[in-house]
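Quarterly update from the structural biology core.
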Amino acid sequence: MMEKERFLLAKNRIQEIKDENLLQSEFQEYFKKMAEFVGLICDTWTFVSADGPARSSITELKERNYRLYEDILPENYQDSYGNPACSVRKLGEGYGQLLSFLYAELRGMIPFVYEKRQEDVVIRMELLLEIYSSFCCEQAENGRLPEYETLREIVYWFVSDYTRQATLQKLEDMLDPASDFAMHIIEGDLSDPRYLYYYGEYVTENEIETWEHLNSLPWETLKKMADTYTEGYRIGFEVGNKDISKKKTVNIRYCLGFEPMIKEAVQNFRRMGLEATVYRAAVSILQGKGMNRIGYYGAVPNRQYDFDHKDDQALVLDKRLVQVRMEAWQEGYEKYKKQAAGFGGPAVVETFGETPADLKENPRALHLSAVQQKLTVEYMSAAMELQNKYIKGEERSFTIIAFPVPEIGKDFKGIFDQVVKINTLDYKLYQRMQQKIIDTLDKGKYVLVKGMKGNKTNMKVMLHTLTDAARETNFENCVADVNIPVGEVFTSPVLAGTEGVLHVSRVYLNGLEYKNIMLTMEGGMVKDYICSNFDSPEQNRKYIKDNVLYHHDTLPLGEFAIGTNTTAFAAARKYGIEDKLPILIAEKTGPHFALGDTCYSHAEDVAVYNPDGKEIIARDNECSIKRKEKSGQAYFNCHTDITIPYDELGEVSVVTCEEEMIPIIEEGKFVLAGCEELNIPLADLEDV
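Predicted structure, tokenized:
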């Protein structure tokens, strides 16, 4: 049967649900609500198919956009079936979670309508009908509800049957420039903010004001922003000793509103010989939807909704499904083998300043079991190993840059200008000062890092032994390449002997807030962890294990670095936005420690050199070296930076083999000769 016929049949049958009363009232009400939503989806399909977005006023576009997302907005979430707590309250345990999942999956149809992917719309309409039919048949034949397991199996086979299709589409969107839905918008007319509604993403004044600000900037400023971004990508290949001429594509990831800059960046990449791919962040369980948005995306309607549904795969995840997913990835990479070999890696534009969400653990939400957590870790490891076979780590690179959005407050324009300045600092100046720090660190056996003013950090970080100090170094001199802006020296520590306590009073990691996060390290591995977000110690530990350890029982210290961007720290303090800085900038505002893989993950065997010609030999640790024997145990597929700000930093000192202690930072100030200029922004801050 043709997709169009399936669509019409499903549409007509779902419309009938609104007039039926075949079930217990609470379940009939749920399905009527779903039918209303699908009706809205079908109306949107007609609107998009008739080129409605391009012909409508911005007022109509705003109204349509709001109707699609209003049910899960914070002010309506308490009584939404998208809220597992509400769904359980109305429909009961088990049924409530499953039917809340179903609603979340149906909501994934919104962007598919705008992309005119009718098959993706149809299969979700048919899933709704299959579950509704199960309720109706059991009610008619036995006068009762269907067994929960029967419903769960329907969802299970939906995921199993369509995983291959979704995986192939995901790879096509990432690797093939011909999959160009978003690119058509980016390279179209950006003079009117109506284009923001063409994607099907949620749009607020935040995205419109971002567009307005970028559209008002002098072309020279916009070009400077784009040039810094794309040059960072190119230099990343150069510094990493990788051949960019082998690459054909680059994947651009960004938030709506930044299209004026992205449009310039696309042209820059083309001049490098790279075509851009731009794919949407995942919206479905079939695509691996979670808390983090990877791709392009609009406003987040409700972070609590995302948080409540991040573990929806708990409904179906088992060994067989992992195997199905792995087979789908294998088939997909084989199909797109040539494109995968030419894929250069991502170029990411992050945003910061969004209003923070006070997320609450929802006991009615689906959660992964201990077995499923282990399966997830094993799956991620296997999937990354497979990806590295086709998109080789030693040949690819990336870059990340960040800008504020209007939600950051009334000083948005001033903050934006300051961030542009931070992103374009004189990297030669920083390179020289950072080399002074590296030369000192290379004398050391280990580094001591201690907090002050209530910060309880007390870390000992072991360094690799240099066998030829004239040609070797432990630390990379990081300027504005893969991680923009400038400002850090980093290494992969030796795990044995690395120990102590890492503490930060308040930090945001991947969009989530952590209060008084404290990690205890032993042998370079996380031994214990706690925070004070929740009243219950168990909830606090679960929060960290789920979102920092990514379900691993422990993680190694993959990176130790000293951030040198005091200009960024001073700007954050001036505007009171320290808690809003993204990791990308925050990691440059003090020493930081990364849990997970090293910075050289999957590329440890590629020789990397600093500008002074010395080879950086600290590319492995005791975990990553296992790749030579058991690759499945070498990588953790995560890397989370935790930064101690200068004003909580009592000491950073290097200790030599002769036990001589050489201070680099004392009481938040650089005391190493040759680095005095780094204190100027801090001194200026004291004068304010």
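The mean pLDDT is 94.
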